[in-house]
Amino acid sequence: MAExxxxxxxxxxxxxxxxxxxxxxxLITYIVIAVSWFTGQYPAAAGYALSHIVIGILCQGSIxxxxxxxxxxxxxxPSLTSLQIVIAMxxxxxxLLFTREFLSSLIMIYPIILLFGVFQLSRRTFVLxxxxxxxxxxxxxxxxxxxxxxxxSLAALALDWFVLACFLGWLSFFxxxxxxxxxxxxRRHQTLQLHQETLKNMMGQLQxxxxxxxxxxxxxxxxxxxxxxxxITLLGPGQKLGLALIDLDHFKRINxxxxxxxxxxxxxxxxxxxxxxxxxxxxxxxxxxxxxxLLLHKADLSSLQHCLERIRQxxxxxxxxxxxxxxxxxxxxxxxxxxxxxxxxxxxHYADQAMxxxxxxxxxxxxxxxxxxx
Length: 374
Description:
It is a single chain. Strands 2-3-1-4-5 form a 5-stranded mixed beta sheet, with helices on both faces. Helix content is 65%, strand content 9%. By secondary structure, the chain is of the alpha+beta class.
């Protein structure tokens, strides 16, 4: 929901920026009106000159309030592009009524107004707005022809309208091409983003496969070594990691007597039990064959021993449907505590020694390397 609100806020901010840009056109128009009046080129009274500015400010102020309040979001086009273009055309036509001496110069403001709809209006809507500009200008020329105090050349007025029609026709074609090109680029960009997302997902899957043991679903030896070394570098003074090397007792005999499918079932059952017995920050990996390695995050020796005993007892209590009744699997484990600055390979060697000591003492037990008691 928060992300959606942020997207909406960015869109509204962009609409306001376009609105501010449009105000530069109005500012230029107001300056032209003021200069025309002060130089005596504006034929009407000062009140009429002022009316252009007042009406323009009122209209633009209303649009600004709609954008700031979010009322514009109720419309199909929240940017209010069509509304702003129509208002600008009407105001321009009203201005041209009083500045007939500059008709040929000021009619080029019609195309400038239409340019604000290049990326927002569809081809059909853009052509309709161009037609509206021609209609307004045609009505204006007709009014001037019939009500002018001095005779006007019909041919000259018709030529003015024809020039505007030709230019707006070309502009409609050009803007349609620009819009089509933009849409094509957007589609290609979306396709590229989709391909990039697919590639990213594939890379993630490949990375997961590279870090995961396919049989048990646990991380593999390579990932464990990298993660353990990273965590050792993050240890602070007095903090420790618990390391344990686990070997399933007589696993080769299970494979030989009952088949590899049963052996795989035992490995998978141990992996599931170990995952359920650990915290989210702890790591359990398949180290190779029937050997597993465990890293207990920020632990002490007591918590490491308790964790390993819980796993050992739980594994010994498991029943397997493909094993004869009364046949249970056990494990032997060796433990070592890692402190800040310790060498990982050295402590794996310590845990391995402790694990073989557990096997020598009869298996199905957990032993701690002597250095961890220090």
